[in-house]
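Need a sequence for this fold. Nothing fancy.
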């Protein structure tokens, strides 16, 4: 039996609604058994949960991968760090007006996320599909200015990641982040192309979604309990049964 909730210490974690808040919910009981009552605050964008963590409104957040966190810290002077990677969401290209990559017309509109790390990730996926070629070595810093070959004259349109599923019918294809694809009911199995986990130094290790905390709190009792709960067998089973390959546990 868990302790009476009066004795539980509260831990406040910010998250994207799907899958992160759902996964946190699945970890609630395990966390209670470790003495913590989990309070989940949902955010629909990628900026607020880091600002709220930085300002102390949150104890941790769970929504982002390390390239995004690194670029956020660099741009905002924040000192947020990873306390551990939990899962990986394969990045996919989804059909808008055009049903397949082979059928992409000249000057097709391709929608991609507009934040540095995810735009680079989208461009690398388009490159892996042979649709564009990027300047050698740009890697995770790539922007559309780094496209050196674009034989189909694709029109790369940058949108806020959260807008992509809603705008998909405005484009021929869209490259969409896992959490927003899941929320919009898009299945990885329906994607026209998915990241090859073997590519870019193993996409899974590069883009693992992690628990982030303020620097210095990586090994606090609360942080340790949170990461242990999220990497418990119960949560692993929940991930595997719920998301059909859209969420891959990294533990």
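Here you go.
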């Amino acid at each position: 039996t868990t302790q009476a909730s009066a004795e539980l210490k509260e831990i406040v974690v910010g998250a994207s609604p799907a899958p992160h808040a759902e996964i946190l919910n699945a970890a609630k009981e395990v966390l209670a058994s470790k003495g913590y009552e989990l309070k989940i605050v949902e955010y629909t964008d990628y900026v607020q949960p880091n600002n709220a963590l930085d300002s102390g409104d949150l104890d941790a957040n769970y929504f982002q991968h390390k390239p995004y966190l690194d670029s956020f810290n660099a741009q905002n002077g924040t000192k947020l760090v990873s306390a551990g990677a939990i899962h990986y969401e394969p990045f996919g290209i989804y059909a808008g007006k055009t049903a397949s990559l082979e059928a992409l017309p000249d000057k097709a509109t391709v929608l991609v996320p507009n934040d540095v790390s995810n735009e680079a990730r989208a461009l690398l996926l388009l490159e892996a599909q042979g649709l564009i070629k990027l300047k050698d070595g740009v890697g995770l810093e790539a922007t559309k200015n780094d496209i050196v070959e674009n034989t189909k004259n694709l029109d790369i349109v940058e949108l806020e990641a959260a807008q992509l599923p809603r705008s998909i019918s405005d484009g021929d294809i869209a490259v969409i982040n896992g959490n927003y694809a899941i929320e919009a009911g898009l299945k990885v199995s329906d994607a026209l192309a998915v990241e090859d986990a073997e590519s870019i130094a193993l996409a899974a290790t590069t883009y693992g979604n992690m628990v982030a905390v303020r620097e210095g709190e990586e090994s606090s009792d609360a942080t340790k309990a949170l990461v242990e709960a999220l990497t418990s067998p119960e949560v692993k089973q929940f991930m595997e049964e719920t998301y059909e390959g859209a969420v891959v546990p990294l533990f």
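For context: The mean pLDDT is 94.
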